[in-house]
Amino acid sequence: MLAAGKKVFLLVILAQTSLSFRPNRFSAFYPLDYTHEDITKTAALKVVARFLEENPEDGRTVSPGQLQNLDPLTPSSIFSRYYGGESSVFCYIRGTNYKPNATLYTYVGPVSAKNFDEAVGDITKANADIDRHDLWTSSVHFNAEQFQTALTRLRNLRTIVIETLQKADLTDLDVSAARINTGSYLHTLQDFYSNTNWVENNGAAVYEDLGMPDSPNPAVASPGINTCSSTDCPPGGPSGGPLTTCENNLISPEGVLTSGYRSGQDVDKPAATHEWFGKCSHGGTHDATREATATGGINKESLDPAESPHHFLHNTAAQAAMDATEHFLYAAGSGLKDQVGADVFRRFFNLASGTSLCIVMDDTGSMSDDIAAAKAVSIEIIQGAAANPFDKPYNYVLVPFNDPMSDAGPMTITRDSAVYIDAINALNAHGGGDCPELSMTGLELALQNTLPKSKIYLFTDADPKDSDKLQDVISLLQQKKSKITFLLTGSCSRKRRDLNGRSKRAVSGNPYDVIAEESGGKVFDITKDEVAEVSEVIALEVNGAPVTVMTKSVPESGPRDQEIPVDEALLEMVLTLTGSATAPVFQLYTPTGAIQSFGSADAQVVIETDQYKVLKVTDPAAGMWRLHLADGQGYDIEVTGKSVLDFSTEFLDTGSGFPIDGRPIGGSEYRLVVSGSGLENAGNVTSADLLDQSGTLLSRIYLQTSSGRGEPVYTATIVPPAQPFRISVEGIDQRNNTFRRLLTTLIESESLRLELAVENREPLYPGGSSRVGFVLVNGGSDDTFQLTVSDDVGLVTGVTPSSVTIATGTNVTGYVTFSAATTVSPGTSSTTILTARSSLGSSTAPSNFITIRTIVSERIILVIDTSPPVCNITSVVGNCTAVRQRPDVCADWSWSVQMMMIDSGLGLSRVYGEVSTGEVLTTDDFTPGLQDVAIRANYSSTCCHPKMTVTVVDLAGYVDQCVLDFSIPTTEAPPTTTRSPDTVTPEISVASGTVAMNIGMAVSEFTEEVETEFKATVASSMTSYCQRHVMEFLSCRQTEHRAKRSTHDSQTFDSDNVVILEGFPKSSMSPDRITLAFFVSNPNSSAEKPVPVPGSLLLMVIQHSQMRVQEALGWKTIYNMYLYGTEVPTLIPIDVTDGTDEQTDYPVTGSSSHVLYIVIGVVVSVVTIAVVIVLITSWLKKPNVTKPTYEADQNINLDPPMAGHVNRAMKSADEQMKMEEEPLEGEFPMTGLNSPTYW
């Protein structure tokens, strides 16, 4: 019950990791979703294939495309082709399925790609760990518009990875740390394409400057700018209706980046100030913000519409993320390969064959009579391995140990066998004293500094003095899955002289026996005379693609016939037999039934003693071999070999899809995942057998092929048995021969659960400390548990509690503390093992462990800019009517716009606009970072180009835009007056700061009561808006003071401040519409000489409150509102740094009349026809628009209002004449002609 309850907790917490691309296929929402694992691995394979083509090792020639065009492109297919030669090994290539006899590869010897696969696995695991341990930090996932911190994170991690790999004394620990940091970097990089609107704006293009040092921040939406609309994206995402696709819910300015907010993260979604418009949500069923305006979301993490409102762009986002990953790794000049060099890049991806060959040597004084023999064994092994380029180890590791360890010789890690031999020859016996030695400490160092699945050989003549480290060693062993063999020339109590390996005897309490049994290794009791024979045994284990087929202990009364399956990919078979009483007596039969004879080069007797025999068969025939054992004694059987076909397994939590850490819990249900290398040789993977320590079958689990992208993965539901077990994977190859691969690591289920707390990690900085929480759950009897902790770089300082008594069915929480000295480099990675074990102390007492990976981060003081820049249109000169936009005359008419721009945050960065032929944008010269000083900008064009968008960006990336658009329908009745190129006759004139509105009502309907309500609403809207934006606008402040202050008192407006111009309202040129012109006076001015607030400010307020104003007008439609003038104003230069109090957030001209003009004119019949056409075609084909339109069909319109300051003037005719059913701001959008709601 306890385990089940805990599983529910994990499901609730971890199933909500819907923040970006999912970590792996088992957490994906949809079978064909691209996951972080898919994206990272696919990119790595492409990059490595290209790298090996362009950087072949000496003696290898690879033509362009030979590796990159492989299908399938897998680690083993790349290695098989790269190490091509002559052999009889068959590798079959598939498209979507593996097809027999498609392509035949031959090569000299099998070279396993497991090291490469492990390196990529380290990166993908670190990538996935972000969703486990840093789920709720929005900047890590590019959520919540946290661009400044997200970009800083990318720049920092990129620098750390490169600087780590550029170290002159680069160690394997450094390389491991770089992989972890790369995984963290790639997670955030890939999330950019899933969680922001980059893909909506740019498709699958890579943002090459993203996270690059010294590159400017991209243009991003300011805090006050609305970025999404609720109109076509309901909370549940796309619902399948024509108007609820979420395809048009983004309304951020063109080219401006935004991202969605997600519930539960560290930054809350701002409350919307408009009924339909607001900040974007992330979206998905676990995001509560999807219910708040703007509803829905924009994430592209899945093909599932319920989880990803922009599911239709999932594949595009995934492709962009893959290309961006490749760009980071391999871009010319800036990519990781060019930054660190080809040799380090090869080491980063473990592109050489083989694993680590490690010798752990006791160099205490008691080894004086044995150390020479141990040296001879070691050197013979090394020379034999180095002679075969396909079998030689990836690197060599020598770990001397002594008592104390400070007396031990130096540890050596090298890829040069000569250097290694020199280090072994330099060993000398010294020190020590008492008989037990620190062998567990030496073994711990060996596991920390070798590759996974390595071969480790420990030479000693003494028992372990530090047996208390046994659990730490076993914990590391469970992670590394290495094989450890002990060569003992004595013990503290007696000299043991027995060559017979003790790998299958009942496990005693001796740590050597326990570790050998856990790892699938052996314990040899040897003399100096037996050194040569042992070296031959060990040499058989050192090859480029070692596999274990089976192990079996057969009692004297057991069956005499044992089947040995041999598949096409098994190039070498080594049979080791041990008799319980005498030399083994047996017959070995080939698949044809013939007796296999020995004594030739293809069938050798490698070792033969009184009880021990080792046989080697080269290129054994595929099929079922039979071993017949003579009666009269028991036997231990081990079958190993050489093959690229091999497997690994993981236990996954069924709720989260993440691999468990430590040992599984007895009685709990898990997902068993079987992954393979060299699967080109496997026809079908059918089952996983759970075997006890003797090799007897406990249960058989039938595997299913898991859906997902990439190489096949095989899964089944499993409840681990109570006794220790190993897993054997079985299937059939391409020619229907049975294959079997045994995973030698012993798995033990426990009643004690140890897991990391679900929380964001505290960062660890140089000179600082941090804590990582954990939970210990006791599913067994009441017990007292001891907790110990160790790491590989000395960052861990302790664990609290170190001892705790826990009743059955209860749990305790604790934490591990870390501390980094000021001299520790950022990017340093610590792999820490936390172990909990019962105080009972027996080998069967409950114990478990977890791995904690900690990275030292660089402490960066980041100044966050919360003040966006401001762009104000100060004057407009000229006008482009429909007549003037005619192609034959448009070049004769010009117009220009004057603007003022300022930033009070980090400072201005750049100003840009879409400039075509005949258009000119000029600005005052300024240095990026200019603060609190206004610059002027001028934009000029002809009526052939009647639109303008000018964007100002500050150093934080925040933007503001000045937008002007004269575009109106060009199909209209011929002009009734002749064109005058020099003058424009205004139809109506209004005072400066005036807003004019075109309203669907008659003049008679604008009664005194309506006027009163209208003025009160405008005044109330001004007051409310100014309360929220008092820091942005001088006119909103009671005291118009320019000095920087933390607060200002906002203005309060009343109805008397709202002034309707004389002669208004008046009938418009369009029937059934009126034009109303008005301004709002600053309360600081007098009634006799009112000073209008800036027209641009008033325009934004009315846009923002359009629904309320329409209600005040009796729910009459406001078709458009605008500021416009034809008088040529003279701009008075303004120095905002001179300390004066003059107001400058509205236009100032040299004209005493402060007159602006508007011109409205569209032939009604033409407009009506155009709208009817749009209505008809819109039901046939949805228009391809970037954002919804909320205005009716008139000639001058505004964008949907945005909270914040985006100075927009007019909108294009193409967008004006969108579908008639599209609502005005404030009206309910319709899904059909008569539908009252849209979801």
UniProtKB/TrEMBL annotation:
Domain VWA7 Ig-like: 757-856
Record domain Hemicentin/VWA7 galactose-binding: where: 547-643
Entry keyword set: Glycoprotein, Membrane, Secreted, Signal, Transmembrane, Transmembrane helix
Domain Hemicentin-1-like von Willebrand factor A: 356-528
GO cellular component: extracellular region
The keyword Membrane is assigned to this record: yes
Keyword Transcription regulation: no
Top-rank taxon: Eukaryota
Residues that span the membrane, as ranges: 1155-1180
Localization terms from the record: Secreted
Domain VWA7 N-terminal: 107-331
Residue ranges the record marks as coiled coil: none
Main location: secreted
Name this polypeptide is given: von Willebrand factor A domain-containing protein 7-like
